[in-house]
Design goal:
The structure is a single chain. The N terminus is likely disordered. A hairpin with a 4-residue loop joins strand 7 and strand 8. The longest helix has 16 residues. It is built from three helices and 14 strands. It has two domains: 137 residues, Immunoglobulin-like, CATH 2.60.40.680; 47 residues, Dockerin domain (Type 1 dockerin domain, Orthogonal Bundle). By secondary structure, the protein is an alpha+beta fold. The strands form three sheets. Strands 2, 4, 6, 7, 8, 10 and 12 form a seven-stranded mixed sheet that branches. It has a five-stranded mixed sheet with strand order 5-9-3-1-11, with no helix packed on it. Strands 13-14 form a two-stranded antiparallel sheet.
Length: 211
């Protein structure tokens, strides 16, 4: 009878712990432009026992280039076998990212699995999405899902960062007309030559409209 009670307690504990594990892309909010460096995290939130994970990631390679993948803090305190994956900026993906706790041990709760450094090389919207994800406990894959996120890189011609190049941007350049400073000193110095001039007005007109 005592053995049956112990088994029943263990079964209830296992059922209470089981649940859906979610991997979430977390892109930082802010106004970003070409040349900016951006770190995007992938978080894990679980009520299960996690021993290892694997995933791949897509991004818009006309907008972003990946530069480095770093291990997150989910398995902090454990010795791990971490693979940063293979970055392919031509295809716009990172494949074969994975991590596993060596020896005994697992984790539950929340943390980051990786932090990925990107550089903005263009402008527009880049969705950042996961695929081929897998999360395991000590013996098997566990139920898991994922969420995506996106980041917007603003055009240098969109002075007020409203995602359209129009009269408002032209007026902003005109208000600073003939002012000088170090190259790139203000957004209205679009061509970064140290002077707000008619060239900057022409660049606004040439890139008129949404993007």
């Amino acid at each position: 009878m005592a053995a049956a009670v112990v088994v029943g307690v263990l079964l209830m504990a296992t059922q209470a712990q089981a649940g859906i594990t979610t991997l979430s892309v977390d892109a930082p909010a802010g106004e970003y432009h070409q040349g900016d460096l951006i770190t995007i995290s992938i978080a894990c939130d679980t009520t299960d026992y996690v021993k290892a994970w694997e995933c791949k990631l897509n991004f818009n390679n006309n907008v972003l280039n990946a530069t480095q993948v770093n291990e997150g803090n989910l398995f902090s305190g454990y010795q791990t076998f971490f693979n940063e994956g293979i970055i392919n900026n031509t295809q716009g993906n990172i494949i074969n990212m994975y991590n596993v706790i060596l020896g005994q041990g697992n984790v539950t709760g929340s943390g980051t699995i990786v932090n990925i450094n990107f550089q903005a090389i263009g402008y527009g919207l880049s969705e950042i999405s996961l695929y081929d994800i897998g999360v395991t406990n000590e013996t098997m894959y566990i139920p898991s899902t994922f969420t995506t996120d996106s980041i917007f890189i603003y055009s240098p011609y969109d002075i007020n960062c409203d995602q359209v190049v129009n009269l408002q941007d032209l007026v902003l350049v005109a208000l600073h007309y003939d002012e000088t400073g170090a190259p790139g000193w203000i957004p209205e110095d679009i061509n970064n030559d140290g002077r707000v001039s008619v060239i900057d007005l022409v660049l606004i007109v040439l890139h008129w409209g949404s993007y």
